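new request in #modeling-help
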Amino acid sequence: MMIPLVALIRKDLRLFLGDRRAVIMSFLAPILIGAFFGYVFGGNGKRETSRIEVLMVDQDGSAISRGILTDLQASKSLSVKPAELAAAREAVRKGTATVAVVVPKDFGAAAGKAFFQPVDKPEIGVLYDPSHSAEQNMVQGILTGSVMQIVSKEVFNGPTGSTVVTDSLAQIAASQKMKPEDKAPLQDLLKSVQKFNARPKTETSGGGQGGLSVPYQIREEAVTARTGQEYNAYAHSFGGMSIQFILFMGIDVGIGMLLMRQRGLWKRLRAAPLSRSLLLGSRAISAALTSMLILAVVFSAARLLFGVRIEGSLAGFVGVCLAFSIMTASFGLLVASLGKTPDATRGLSILATLVMLMLSGAWVPAFLFPQWMQSATMFIPTRWAMDGLDAMTWRGLGFSAALGPIGALLLSAAIFGAIAVSRFRWEAEG
Amino acid sequence: MLAARNLRKSYGPHVAVDGVSFDIARGETIGLLGPNGAGKTTTVSMISGLLRPDSGEVLIDGRAVTGDTDSIKHKIGLVPQDLALYDELPARDNLEFFGALYNLAGARLKRAADEALDLVGLTDRAKDKVSDFSGGMKRRLNLAAALMHDPDLLLLDEPTVGVDPQSRNAIFENLETLKKRGKTLLYTTHYMEEAERLCDRLVVIDHGKVIANDTLHGLYKLLPVTNILSIELENPECGLRLAEVRAFAAVQSAELEAGILRIGVQNLAADAPAVLQWLVSNGYPYSHVVSDRPDLETVFLTLTGRSLRDS
């Protein structure tokens, strides 16, 4: 039985490697597309992240509005330029700017008053590109911190602040609505601020000189395989693209079997004294070997070109790759058993594969999915493959973390295989 | 060598093969003849083990084929109607692959490939990819692939479909060589001239049933006439009346067209001289006589009432 088995596997591998289209699709495409997605999603950690394009429309021209502009321009996450309102709106509409911040006339004075009194708060307009809502939230957060700091600084130190405090004391004294027990402590606070502003300024004066600020600093650390190890987005993207193009190869395995039936080759194979398990098994083995070859080539390219390393267990990585390859082989047999004609089957199986890929996190990381979808996708075998490859590459986890994905992939392979064998049309058409 | 016993196969309500039975002796060449859709390919598929019959059995050397891996399959070589080859591989690699399926390896495999290539005349193209071959060359390689394991029984399912006359002739020469080597051939076709040239016996099948199983000579006997005499009259305007000719006992049929009198007779040796003598003695001299035999097309027409190629 070994001679026919080896001949069948050898023939499949020769046909695959001799097919230029298949080789390009299986080896080159995942490397090129993986490189693209890896770069877009942050590269290997050494690249400077891009800044959000923000336009600021200063209709106030006060010390406060100018201070906000200067503060925002100092942010390493933003690229802020001044602009007129009409131009800013047009830029956001065209997508050349992500967000435009509009500081209206008299904002500085109104913000100072609103700092101490329950008066109407002045509005800051935020025009944003709806396709970049995540960036808009980020800009709003930075803007809030900046405004708090600049307004408080002006109130406690600047000339605008002195005027605001004096005006506020007069308004409180004249207020009929305010209860006397509320007036007294607020007046004490404002008088203290007046005294604070009137004191001689020195270099070492602390407190409110710099305005209110967020009372903490953030120390960022990407938790990867080890301390100091930057996240390498190529690890995820190469894993995702490998999975995608190997599944496409799996479809080709199934379609190839349908073509064999159509071309009469299946008759020749069935006429030979070969068992059914040998015929299907040889096809599954050659598909799994092809898959392993693709994974080896693609991850070698990722290692050489983009520094992707197996930071976790090498045995776990090999185990996940092997389990995924077996799953792909079963998937190919499933396509062959459920399909009728090659053309009709190709379209349907590509659609099913794309859905599997979409839900696996191969294109966009699964954490971006809604919570229910994250739970539901645990039933998708490609999700386990993706998680397993991530765990063994950039997350740097041990062999035990590979056991779940390996088990899930082998279970999927068994289910696909059982359906394929039970539904396979063994008889050649008469 | 082969015995097909009451084979039956249905696809839903459609009965493709309905109780087909025939035998083939060792070294014999049988033509399985019938129009497209008659059930020939289904019958061959059941004989080669590709299809399980609904009922009936196939015996090879007195033994039924049991299971996919039955060693008796080594005795059968199948030449499918389709070109069952890998276009992307060279001719020799195709042959070695199909040989390996029958457990051939090493020197035995190489020798079998050499012999098969030699038989079909493709030795000098052994290293060329099949995709570069003409239709006729592919047909010859399709035949060679079935010979790799040196089977005793060759099942040939319309092996000349779509080839030019020259290639068809080449394939026929290959088959005649195999016949001389003692191989048993089952040859399905709907080309009468092929069956006439190659086969010792013919099994005519129509609508899934065997309607005749005899030698060529035996089938001709089923016809009302075995020969047609085409007699060119010296004087086309001689006033010959067909009723007079038809009344003559030896004449089975008579037609007159453009001075050519066509007369059907049952027994050429006895009837032809009598007919010619009658014409001369009744004042209808002739200048030329040709005797034709009816072909298998006529046989099929006689058996089914339909033309073979129109069926």
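bot summary: The mean pLDDT of chain A is 86.
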